[in-house]
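The following record pairs a protein chain with its ligand, iron/sulfur cluster.
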Amino acid sequence: MMQASISEVFCSVQGEGPYVGYRQAFVRFTGCNLNCNYCDTPVEVTNVCRYEAVPGSNVFLDIENPLLPARVGEMVNSYPRLHSVSLTGGEPLLCAEFISSLITDAPLYLESNMTLPRMAKKIKDKISYVSGDVKLLPHSLLEDPELHLDRTIECFRILKATKARDCFCKIVVTKDTPVDEIEGVVGAISGYISSLILQPVTQKDMQPEPGCLLKLQKSFLNDVNTRIIPQTHKMWGCL
Ligand code: SF4
C-alpha cells in the first residue's frame, strides 16, 4: 500500500479563493516539483507529521512518517462538520496513488500547481473541488517554459469543472509576473474553469501595483468570472 510523507494535518478555514472561510481539514504533503520564487511553504520531507488532534487547539502531536491513507483518513474524519478536506503541499499530485486510496467523510479539495497531468488523471474522479494554480514564473526558474504551460493546460482539461466537480483557477500575481503570458493561458483554459482568481502575492516587497490587477481583471471579464482575492488567513493570524 502506498504511503506518504505528510508534514501536517490540522483543522482551519480556507484562506484563499471562492471558498474562503469554509471549514476544512488540511493535509499538507511534502515535496514539490517546482521552485516558485514566492513560495512560503516548507516542502522538505519530515520525519514526523504534526497532527492537531483537537481541532482549532493549535496543539500538535508528532506522528511518525510515512503514513498510510487509512491513518490519515482517521485523523481527518475525527474533525466534525467539515466543508471539505484540502489536499495541499508541496504538490499533492506527487502522491496521486496515496490520494486514490484516501477515504474521507468530507469531499476532497485539491490545491495543485497543475503541472503533472498523468497524476491528475489517476485521481480526477475522487476530487470534488480543484483549486488549480497557473504558475507564471520567471523563465529562469523553469527548464522548459513552453512544456510547463502545455502541461498546465492539459491538467485543467483533465480536472475541468463538471456537474460533479468545481474547478477554478488561481494566479498569484507578483510585480515580476510575465503579464503577457497570462492572457494566452487564460484563453486556453477559460472553458474548463468556473472562475479565475487573481491573488496579489502576500509578500509586500513583491506585490504588483493595484492598477495592474484591475487592468488584468477587466481584460478577462468578457471570458470568465474574474475576481481579485488576496490571502485572508494571514490577516488574522490563522494557520
Ligand atoms: S508549487 Fe507551491 S509548494 Fe511548490 S514551490 Fe511553488 S508555491 Fe511552493
